[in-house]
């Protein structure tokens, strides 16, 4: 990988300096009071004969409690399950969780905004409505917006060897954690202790080729009587998987054009002689002379597959350290540091040239006295390989958590005062053609005609000649952008038992936070200086916001069988010269009519502060996956089903602008559940959940704008009305008398608004059964199932509710089931995991694909107390879900993978314990 020098970035601003000094003084006071009074308070920590089991803190509360069950369902995925169930990393485990029903664009989605990042969408409500925490603390957003519009947390690079467990909380939790916790909360709990040292090596490959990977992990501890320190190092490499490495999508039914010369007025392709046959070795010996009713041109059925990496290439290095220093029996200093460095490489587009692409994409040929369009795709055989035009990302992330915790002197209050900060930096190298490329192929520019179209007198041989890598280097380079994001938080959390009631202790907890978030998107200045062959301008974008929060919660055992909990929190956000404050609350009730049965219910309000990308973006561009031009269909008197301009793909380009006046989104959720645990060997639970979001921030609907435009232009609406004036101004079209793309949509201007409403509900069912035998070993059967019962939405207040589940354009899962059977006998442990993915619409959006089951198998052999060997096979039956209805690449992209069977061998060695 080539070395790139990137533009500099401004240093992190010390915006929290005014609060650091008083907090530091407070921490020092606590430290000194604890140090001098350690003997006096030593007696309070001695265990009593009737001491209760240690309490734990489960996601969704800050109050320690004895039971893992609470008023809201929490799903736990342990580190052991991540390995045994065949999950490759933290993201893979969360992506397969039954609560994750939403479709997301990941690294296999092709030309996405964020191919070096992966995220999830709990309940199908979008990545920005799921709060991701690392040890209960926020992480910096990925600095590039998901789909170019929303901020999210990247899950692709969290090392699995430092994870103790993952907790997934259903429903809203803003009263505990603040903004974003609308659909649910994912809390990734890191390991805090270990014994000795551990070396882990894992190597894997795919059965059908491509995508091989390897990983080395080393972790250990350094402990003394007062100091506990855990460190971890992980390095991994992953090879790309290209579409050409899967036979079912290695070629396209209709070849893609690689070289043509066209008369713009007639639309006919002009003769290229025997060029196509002379260059038949191009694109891996697949270039042909393709005949059409309007002439011939060069084409290849392997062009698109050659330039699409289904899995990105990745190198990853992660370092982690967690240290706890006991100053005395009641006071501990702690420090956690996590550093990650990742290099990602992908290919989603072929390097190409279209004549005069910055001015109508055609020119006046002085030699033929005609308007012509020339186009060429550069073959790998010309440019020194298919990887020559890959895009590169160099990402670095760091997170620190420093603080002190213990007991406030002279009281029964436990406290934790902490400073946490994280930063993410992503540097992108994007190959581009240079501004001199027209001159390279067409010769010197001879001026402009009266319509402003460039005039050339080109030699066709320049178009048809075989290039050399050196010539390709003369007309291409790469832009270098730098994106970063940061978050900082000062927090003080306390909890205690207030008093005793007949049924137990009343407990309470409180939290105070001061935080700041910021981001910077810095583009290569040459993009706007005419250095590259592009007219799309890109602006630097910067934004920041500060937040303040106070919250409290209480846990009350009303009766021996009935426990209530209540929490409230006020968050105050300051951004773009204004502020937005929100009060949220939640309440829960647990009823145990018998020791074996738990009935639970909860209600919560939640909110999400507007995405900073929505607020501060100056100008963003992209394109819709499909568009319907209602006006052109009506103008030609055609029904949508017969109209060529209905549902065409790829759709129209859009331009997006930010809006500083956005309000926070508001959410409400409630849940009811029952848990039955008749024994330690068996338990089952059923939970109903319901989530609603109002004032949801979305971009103006392009489809609605196009419908309104058609009504305005055809007289159904008053063309002079303010609505029509605004709508027509937003939809830019090429002139009706243009020689190329006459009357077509050039771009649609949109901006975000608080208008949308969305509501969804469903059920979760989970169960576990353990069977111990004397001769056949121990068996553990687990099952988790989630089904979406309803999902409805609307764009504006007066719109009718739309049934998203009935929408054959909605790729979210309707239901998902995961079952696992673990068999332990002697030194062997075997686990079979079967995931059943429910139906989803096919590529054409006309019917559903049938449910799909995928089986993973793992075997772990404990050779001795130090050495274990594992064999893991994913997709045991080598199944791939095909979908030919929507055209190439012939499988449901983003929903199911084309990998087929994958296998790993893992060796784990412990020493020095």
UniProtKB/TrEMBL annotation:
<dbReference type="GO" id="GO:0009279">
    <property type="term" value="C:cell outer membrane"/>
</dbReference>
<keyword id="KW-1134">Transmembrane beta strand</keyword>
<dbReference type="InterPro" id="IPR036942">
    <property type="entry name" value="Beta-barrel_TonB_sf"/>
</dbReference>
<keyword id="KW-0998">Cell outer membrane</keyword>
<protein>
    <submittedName>
        <fullName>Iron complex outermembrane receptor protein</fullName>
    </submittedName>
</protein>
<keyword id="KW-0472">Membrane</keyword>
<feature type="domain" description="TonB-dependent receptor plug">
    <location>
        <begin position="69"/>
        <end position="185"/>
    </location>
</feature>
<feature type="signal peptide">
    <location>
        <begin position="1"/>
        <end position="42"/>
    </location>
</feature>
<keyword id="KW-0813">Transport</keyword>
<keyword id="KW-0732">Signal</keyword>
<dbReference type="InterPro" id="IPR039426">
    <property type="entry name" value="TonB-dep_rcpt-like"/>
</dbReference>
<dbReference type="InterPro" id="IPR012910">
    <property type="entry name" value="Plug_dom"/>
</dbReference>
<keyword id="KW-0812">Transmembrane</keyword>
<dbReference type="Pfam" id="PF07715">
    <property type="entry name" value="Plug"/>
</dbReference>
<dbReference type="InterPro" id="IPR000531">
    <property type="entry name" value="Beta-barrel_TonB"/>
</dbReference>
<dbReference type="Pfam" id="PF00593">
    <property type="entry name" value="TonB_dep_Rec_b-barrel"/>
</dbReference>
<keyword id="KW-0798">TonB box</keyword>
<comment type="similarity">
    <text>Belongs to the TonB-dependent receptor family.</text>
</comment>
<feature type="domain" description="TonB-dependent receptor-like beta-barrel">
    <location>
        <begin position="441"/>
        <end position="876"/>
    </location>
</feature>
<keyword id="KW-0675">Receptor</keyword>
<dbReference type="InterPro" id="IPR037066">
    <property type="entry name" value="Plug_dom_sf"/>
</dbReference>
């Amino acid at each position: 990988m080539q070395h790139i020098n990137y533009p500099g970035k401004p240093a992190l601003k010390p915006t929290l300096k005014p609060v650091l000094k008083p907090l530091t003084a407070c921490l020092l006071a606590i430290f000194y009071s604890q140090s001098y009074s350690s003997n006096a308070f030593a007696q309070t920590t001695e265990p009593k004969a009737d001491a209760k089991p240690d309490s734990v803190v489960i996601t969704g509360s800050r109050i320690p409690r004895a039971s893992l069950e609470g008023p809201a369902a929490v799903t736990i995925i342990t580190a052991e399950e991540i390995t045994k169930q065949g999950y490759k990393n933290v993201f893979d485990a969360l992506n397969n969780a039954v609560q994750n029903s939403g479709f997301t664009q990941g690294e296999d989605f092709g030309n996405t905004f964020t191919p070096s990042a992966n995220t999830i969408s709990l309940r199908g409500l979008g990545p920005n409505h799921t709060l991701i925490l690392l040890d209960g603390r926020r992480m910096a957003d990925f600095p590039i917006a998901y789909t170019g519009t929303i901020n999210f947390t990247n899950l692709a690079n969290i090392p699995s060897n430092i994870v103790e467990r993952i907790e997934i909380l259903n429903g809203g939790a803003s009263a505990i954690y603040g903004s974003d916790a609308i659909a649910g909360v994912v809390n990734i709990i890191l390991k805090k202790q270990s014994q000795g040292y551990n070396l882990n090596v894992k190597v894997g490959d795919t059965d059908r080729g491509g995508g091989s990977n390897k990983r080395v992990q080393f972790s250990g501890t350094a402990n003394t009587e007062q100091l506990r320190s855990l460190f971890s190092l992980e390095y991994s490499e992953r090879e790309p998987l290209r579409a050409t490495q899967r036979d079912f999508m290695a070629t396209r039914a209709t070849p893609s054009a690689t070289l043509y010369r066209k008369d713009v007025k007639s639309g006919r392709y002009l003769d290229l002689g025997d060029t196509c046959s002379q260059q038949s070795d191009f694109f891996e010996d697949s270039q042909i002379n393709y005949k059409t009713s309007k002439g011939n041109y060069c084409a290849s059925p392997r062009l698109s597959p050659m330039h699409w990496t289904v899995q990105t290439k990745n190198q990853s290095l992660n370092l982690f350290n967690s240290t706890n220093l006991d100053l005395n029996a009641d006071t501990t200093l702690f420090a956690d540091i996590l550093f990650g460095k990742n290099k990602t490489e992908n290919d989603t587009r072929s390097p190409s040239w279209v004549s005069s692409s910055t001015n109508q994409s055609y020119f006046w040929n002085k030699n033929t006295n005609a308007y012509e369009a020339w186009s060429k795709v550069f073959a790998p055989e010309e440019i020194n390989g298919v990887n020559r035009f890959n895009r590169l990302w160099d990402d670095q992330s760091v997170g620190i958590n420093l603080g002190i915790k213990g007991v406030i002197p002279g009281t029964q209050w436990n406290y934790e005062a902490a400073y946490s900060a994280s930063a993410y930096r992503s540097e992108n190298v994007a190959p581009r053609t240079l501004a001199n490329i027209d001159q390279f192929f067409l010769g010197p520019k001879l001026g402009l005609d009266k319509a402003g179209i460039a005039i050339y007198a080109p030699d066709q041989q320049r178009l048809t000649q075989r290039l050399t890598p050196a010539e390709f280097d003369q007309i291409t380079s790469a832009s270098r952008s730098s994106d970063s994001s940061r978050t900082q938080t000062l927090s003080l959390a306390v909890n205690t038992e207030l008093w005793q009631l007949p049924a137990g202790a009343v407990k309470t907890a409180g939290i105070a936070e001061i935080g700041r978030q910021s981001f910077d998107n810095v583009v290569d200045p040459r993009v706007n200086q005419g250095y590259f062959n592009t007219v799309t301008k890109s602006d630097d974008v910067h934004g920041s916001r500060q937040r303040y929060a106070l919250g409290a919660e209480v846990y009350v055992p009303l009766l021996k069988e009935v426990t209530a909990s209540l929490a409230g929190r006020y968050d105050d956000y300051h951004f773009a010269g204004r502020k937005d404050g929100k009060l949220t609350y939640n309440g829960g009730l647990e009823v145990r009519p018998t020791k074996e049965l738990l009935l639970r219910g909860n209600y919560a309000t939640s909110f999400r502060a507007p995405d900073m990308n929505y607020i501060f973006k100056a100008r963003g561009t992209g394109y819709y996956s499909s568009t319907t031009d209602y006006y052109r269909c009506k103008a030609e008197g055609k029904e949508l089903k017969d109209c060529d301009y209905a549902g065409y793909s790829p759709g129209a380009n859009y331009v997006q602008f930010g809006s500083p006046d956005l309000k926070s989104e508001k959410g409400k959720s409630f849940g009811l559940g029952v848990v039955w645990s008749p024994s330690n060997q068996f338990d089952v639970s059923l939970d109903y959940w319901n989530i609603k979001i109002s004032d949801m921030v979305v971009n103006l609907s392009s489809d609605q704008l196009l419908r309104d435009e058609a009504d305005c232009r055809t007289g159904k609406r008053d063309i002079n009305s303010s609505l029509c004036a605004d709508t027509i101004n937003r939809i830019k079209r090429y002139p009706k008398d243009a020689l190329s793309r006459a009357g077509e949509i050039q771009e649609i201007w949109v901006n975000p608004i608080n208008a949308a409403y969305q509501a969804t509900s469903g059920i979760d069912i989970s169960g576990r059964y353990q069977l111990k035998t004397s001769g056949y070993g121990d068996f553990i059967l687990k099952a988790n199932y989630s089904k979406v019962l309803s999902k409805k939405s609307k764009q504006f207040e007066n719109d009718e509710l739309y049934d998203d589940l009935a929408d054959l354009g909605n790729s979210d899962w309707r239901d998902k089931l995961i079952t696992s059977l673990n068999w332990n006998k002697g030194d062997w442990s075997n686990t079979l995991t079967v995931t059943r993915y429910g139906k989803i619409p096919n590529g054409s959006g006309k019917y559903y694909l049938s449910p799909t089951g995928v089986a993973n198998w793992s075997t772990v052999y404990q050779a001795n107390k130090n050495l274990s060997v594992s064999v893991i096979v994913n997709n045991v039956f080598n199944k791939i879900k095909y979908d030919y209805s929507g055209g190439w690449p012939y499988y449901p992209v983003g929903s199911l993978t084309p990998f087929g069977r994958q296998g790993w061998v893992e060796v784990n060695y412990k020493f020095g314990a």
